[in-house]
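Human: We require from you a protein record containing the residue sequence and its fold in token form, and nothing else.

Assistant:
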Amino acid sequence: MMPWLVGPHISMIAAISILDIILVAILIYQFLVLVRGTRAAPMLVGVAALGLAFYFARRGDLRTLNWLLSTLLPYVVFALIVVFQSEIRHALANLGSRISLMRSSSSVADVYDDIVLAANLFSQNQTGALIVIEREIGLRTYIESGVSLDARLSYDLLATIFRPSAPLHDGAVIVQRDRIAAAACFLPLSMNPVLSTQLGTRHRAAIGITEETDAVAVIISEETGTISMAVAGSIERELTVERLRERLSALLRRYAPTATLPSPVEESFIEDEPPSSHPSRRQDAALRPERND
């Protein structure tokens, strides 16, 4: 090779090597972020232990152990796919959501106004509620487990559904775009061992559905009236109404003006309305739910 070509050639190899290292580092970082705080984290310790055993078996010339590990290694790969299927599915869904970011619909972003108003009412009255908002990944399996409604989303309808005396209050409401697809839906419970023991069935169901899909779940505790939100298998607790509005606007990619935020003043306004208007709101304020959080 000619001397004047050595320098550019080495520089090109160095640039490619640096790019290769950066890409590998990003992949490892994203993988660690994905499994952090999930049940997959302690499983990785066992996988690392098997990897070390295989390494020392090769280095120490332990023929029997080396043969055993070499025989089991192909099956271990398939076992890991089965064990980490939830994390793999979540990662692929997250990647697909980022790719299709540009084709998000504005109608999906419009649903949270009534949800925020209803969450404010439920929080003040300590009414337990679980509202799941569908995004890119469909929730048809969970919709079929409940009572089909296919009704336009509204504050009054949410207040009616989650009234403690209503037959559909015990379960989750699933929202598709600007419509309530179903109520009284059954959701998978999260089996994450690192979750707080203070979380009840409603909160674990919210976390479980967000572990399986990219949905957003809004939870109101009937014991304390606190508002929580679950996204991507994690939960944010003790949110204010303003914070809930900001988080939903960010997740649903829509700007939310702060001037229209609900406040306790609205409740007094509702009480001043004529008896014939909004009976569901008036009755809901006088009820106290059962404690099954």
About this structure: The domain at 106-284 is CATH 3.40.1700.10 (YojJ-like (1). Residues 102-110, 255-291 have pLDDT under 50 and may be disordered. The CA atoms of residues 161 and 255 lie 28 Å apart. The longest strand covers residues 179-185.
